[in-house]
Specification:
The chain is α/β, with parallel strands linked by helices. Helix 1 crosses helix 4 and helix 3 runs antiparallel to helix 5. The radius of gyration is 15 Å and the shape is globular.
Length: 199
């Protein structure tokens, strides 16, 4: 792995159970005729991530059966009900020993954030100390690029549904923000009302 093509691995957090959606796993919500998890993987690949790790949790077997995730590394998170933090820990753990020097972390329930925003954040990668995040009108959001030098610190503070939030707050001064407001819409699919965003 000489060029940086293989140094940034896509890390898709897709384990959520859709508690406020009546228990429908977010990975399997339909968007343009295919499960959300497929759209998110395609966006990461289009953004330049040759390798993509997908963290599964709620109804993982069904996701494996119904979604076309060929070529992805599928990571099971048995503790997915603890929240996004456990999925982030599982995902970062799966990258150990792969040669990846950074993870481009994206969330399955944000279909308004596509390849254009992901590519901008990925382009901010310099080395394993990189911390890069998309911004929307100056407010930090997803995706986030975490250099490998930060993985242990992120994993140590990723609890509940906070993900990397606590770690990023502590390292605010090191984060390179990349404005993506004109190429992406950072809404989440969390409630029944949010389903209107799906096509």
């Amino acid at each position: 792995m000489t060029d940086d093509e293989d140094q940034v691995t896509g890390l898709l957090l897709a384990a959520g159970g859709g508690r406020r959606l009546g228990g429908r796993p977010k990975a399997l919500l339909e968007h343009r005729g295919r499960p959300l998890v497929e759209h998110a993987v395609a966006a990461l690949r289009a953004a330049g991530c040759a390798r993509v790790h997908v963290v599964l949790g709620a109804r993982a077997e069904e996701v494996r059966a119904r979604a076309a995730l060929d070529g992805c590394v599928l990571v099971d998170n048995p503790g997915w009900e603890e929240g996004m933090g456990s999925s982030l820990r599982a995902g970062l753990g799966s990258l150990t020993g792969t040669g990846a020097r950074a993870a481009l972390v994206s969330l399955v329930d944000q279909p308004g954030i596509g390849a254009a925003a992901m590519a901008r954040v990925r382009a901010g990668y310099r080395d394993e100390t990189s911390l890069v995040a998309a911004a929307y009108s100056g407010v930090r959001g997803h995706p986030v690029l975490l250099g490998a030098a930060h993985w242990a610190g992120v994993a140590a503070t990723a609890t509940g549904d906070r993900g990397a939030r606590a770690y990023l707050r502590e390292h605010e001064a090191e984060i390179a923000l990349v404005e993506c407001g004109e190429v992406a819409l950072p809404y989440d699919i969390d409630t029944a009302a949010d389903l209107r965003h799906l096509e």
